[in-house]
Specification:
This protein is mostly helical and 584 residues long. The chain is built from 29 helices and no strands. α5 (65-78) packs across α20 (372-412) and α10 crosses α21 (418-440). The termini are far apart.
Length: 584
């Protein structure tokens, strides 16, 4: 009976394509795992990944559930406001290319905590830096788990949201535990191209049949029109459905300061004119969080250590900008088409709401071209699996590396062999995976994209100032770096957690709603704290470093040379070398 209920209303095409993606991921991971023999392979893939493979792998890892599902869902939900997300996701890599990628790789380390210790000769700083790897990582895993739960629930309507998280989380955790960084590099490179195919092919077909993106933007939601007015290529009768009450009106949906950025002011009862400064503040803070946060994501930054040298790291970053920039052209189109073609998603919440528009929209084609719509929906489901599986894999590697390499290998047992650290890596992967799955079950009501923006805000206020200032200012001291990273990062974490707990009504924080409604400025500065936490972190670093200038590392000039000098001079060093020295 249970099995019959589970497979009731399951589309065989969607199930088949999704299973193919999962099986290919597992097989590729197991095959790659057989090639992972050393600690080098597990942590940085032997530092031998080519520019092409690494650019595809980074893109596959970066294009998460927020990119594949969340952008389309948020554009449908709130409108033009959400377009800042794809724009800034891509722009963040320009910042990374110009200021951080090359120097970080030339320094020679396994993880960001490695860099923190090597730059300031401080094992204590390593311990502090590890904490933020975990904070940022867990915030980023929650939207991936939401994507997993939403997709599995879409495939199996009779399966609870939490069951999907358990299923997908277990598969990815075992994949990472088996193969480490080398094991997932090939998988993530393949997954980028799978996602690219899965996002662009359905949208081209949908626009051919139902009209192009700009035509839907100009359509009136209550109009009933023929598809022949949209597309002479396929004169299919199409009725654009009226928008439900919960949907934002066209005037707000098309406004660059719309429902997303004006929510706090609207809840406070402010007029449109009075709400504009608040919307502008929210927008600027979001831009800072997304652009600077890209340069502070540990699971992305660790990828540059897999390049053989700094030049390759810069070339990789340039190609990543191109690959993800092309990808981000497509998800917003799903949101615009979904608003007029399946507006009933506005009435649902959680796993049944607008976050599944990318999965649901292609099935409309079944009305005239069965089973073509199911085939295309199966392709987008496979792309969704590739999205959250690749990003969750990268997050697990970065967090597991922090536990196995930084905590176990450098703090608990510095004399451990490479084999012992590899075992620690696998055990840590399982622990982190279980915690991530537990957190994912609590965030069904949040937009996927919104949660990723919060992770970016924490990264922007902690790791970005640390890396940017450490790479470009020789006057930084360990105390200055620590005070800035802790001050900005913890305040951002506190503000974001406070608003999230109150929205979820956890642990009695739901009683804060009247306060937020009457204090829109406090709500915005807590929900989107980057506009004040990033300058605060940098200011603390400068002030404390000036006060402790006597503690600037003695060899700072040599370290700055290593970070910035051309590698042809032979100055590059491997500051953390114990993995090469310890026998297997």
């Amino acid at each position: 009976m249970i099995a019959a209920a589970l497979f009731d209303h399951v589309d065989p095409w969607i199930l088949a394509f999704s299973l193919v993606m999962v099986v290919v991921t597992i097989v590729a991971g197991v095959w790659s795992a057989s090639k992972s023999k050393t600690a080098h392979d597990f942590f940085v893939a032997g530092r031998s990944v080519s520019v092409g493979w690494n650019a595809s792998a980074i893109s596959g890892e970066y294009l998460s559930a927020a990119s594949f599902m969340g952008i389309g869902g948020m554009v449908m939900s709130v409108g033009y406001d959400a377009l800042w997300y794809p724009v800034c996701y891509a722009c963040g890599y320009l910042f990374l290319l110009l200021f951080i990628a090359g120097p970080l790789r030339r320094f020679g380390a396994y993880t960001i905590p490695d860099f923190a210790e090597g730059r300031y000769d401080s094992p204590l700083f390593r311990k502090i830096a590890v904490v933020f790897v975990l904070f940022i990582g867990f915030f980023y895993t929650m939207p991936q788990m939401k994507g997993a739960g939403t997709t599995v629930h879409y495939i199996f309507p009779g399966l609870p949201y939490q069951a999907g998280i358990l299923l997908v989380g277990t598969v990815i955790t075992l994949n990472v535990a088996l193969g480490g960084m080398k094991g997932i590099t090939l998988v993530q490179a393949f997954q980028y191209w799978a996602k690219m195919f899965a996002i662009c092919v359905p949208i081209f077909v949908l626009m051919t049949v139902y009209g192009f993106y700009n035509q839907h933007l100009g359509a009136t939601a209550s109009q009933s029109v023929a598809a022949s007015q949209f597309s002479q290529a396929a004169p299919v009768e199409l009725t654009i459905k009226p928008l439900p009450e919960k949907a934002p009106k066209d005037s707000a949906w098309l406004n660059p300061f719309g429902p997303l950025t004006s929510k706090a002011a609207k809840n406070a009862g402010l007029s449109a004119e009075a709400a504009r400064p608040y919307s502008l503040l929210y927008t600027y803070s979001l831009i800072i969080a997304l652009v600077c946060g890209t340069a502070g994501l540990p699971h992305i930054l660790v990828r540059f250590y897999t390049n053989p040298n700094g030049v390759a790291a810069k070339r990789t970053t340039m190609w990543v900008m191109i690959l993800i920039g092309v990808f981000y052209l497509f998800p917003p189109m799903f949101g615009a088409l979904g608003r007029h073609l399946i507006p009933e998603l506005y009435n649902a919440t959680g796993a049944k709401g607008t976050d599944k528009v990318v999965l649901e929209l292609p099935r409309l084609l079944n009305e005239k071209y069965p089973p073509f719509g199911s085939i295309l929906s199966g392709i987008t489901c496979a792309g969704a699996f590739a999205a959250f599986m690749s990003t969750f894999s990268g997050l697990l590697v970065s967090m597991t590396g922090a536990l196995a390499h930084d905590i176990y290998g450098r703090i608990i047992d510095p004399s451990s062999t490479a084999r012992q650290r590899t075992i620690a890596f696998r055990v840590s992967a399982i622990i982190v995976g279980v915690i991530a799955m537990a957190l994912g079950t609590q965030v069904e009501q949040f937009d996927i994209n919104f949660m990723v923006g919060q992770a970016f805000a924490i990264a922007a206020a902690s790791y970005f100032p640390l890396l940017f200032m450490s790479v470009w200012w020789r006057g930084m001291t360990m105390k200055g770096a620590v005070s800035g990273m802790l001050g900005g990062g913890l305040l951002a974490l506190g503000g974001i957690s406070l608003t999230s707990f109150s929205d979820l009504k956890l642990w009695g924080f739901g009683g804060l709603k009247p306060f937020w409604d009457s204090h829109p400025l406090a709500r915005i500065l807590s929900e989107q704290p980057a506009i004040w936490t990033v300058p605060l972190a940098i200011s603390l670093m400068v002030i404390v470093s000036k006060l402790t200038r006597a503690q600037i590392p003695a060899d700072v000039r040599m370290k700055m040379l290593v970070l910035h000098a051309p590698e042809e001079l032979g100055l590059k060093q491997e500051y953390i070398q114990e993995h090469q020295a310890v026998p297997h």
